[in-house]
Design a protein that fits this description.
about 170 residues, mainly alpha, two-stranded antiparallel ribbon, 6 helices, about 70% helix, globular
């Protein structure tokens, strides 16, 4: 796996974000059981990897990640950011008791936050757009967050059902 061309702003930015995101993750009070948390964090990475494979893969290449147009070490490290990002989305969903009419509003607001974070990534040279514009990412984030929330609801339902069966 190739190393970066140079250890510069984009690599430093990714490392700082990893340290900050995981520090916040471990400092937050746990609202979601560990078994579900681990699955959700892996699912967040999977969603990001799947989206990048579709949009930044060899056949359709809308953007490059980090310094190379090929997969490199910091591409792998970048995917580590998607795990706590997914967790923070669901943590706030639970912490703020988002329900009913407020679910779409919450998804839109968190998508705006994701767009701003992506824009900061572009400024630091993490993403290099070719045939992509930041506004295209809106639909990707909306779809990803709806998918993540639905997956979480399924896991939570299954977990609560198993917990109830265990107690009986």
């Amino acid at each position: 796996m190739p190393l970066p061309n140079a250890f510069d702003a984009n690599e430093i930015f990714v490392l700082i974000c990893i340290i900050v995101f995981y520090s916040v993750f471990f400092m937050l009070p746990k609202r979601i059981p560990w078994s579900i948390t681990i699955i959700l964090m892996l699912f967040g990475i999977l969603l990001a990897r799947f989206a990048d494979h579709l949009m930044a893969g060899p056949s359709i290449n809308f953007y490059d990640i980090m310094d190379w147009d090929k997969y490199e070490l910091f591409d792998v490290l970048l995917y580590l950011l998607y795990a706590p990002f997914a967790y923070f989305f669901l943590y706030l969903y639970e912490r703020l008791h988002i329900r009913g009419f407020f679910i779409p509003i919450f998804i839109v607001l968190f998508s705006i936050f994701a767009i701003v974070f992506e824009w900061i990534n572009v400024l630091f040279g993490v993403f290099h757009y070719k045939n992509w514009e930041l506004r295209y990412s809106v639909s990707v984030y909306l779809l990803a967050q709806v998918t993540l929330l639905l997956f979480y609801q399924i896991l939570k339902h299954k977990y609560n059902k198993e917990l109830t069966n265990f107690r009986e």
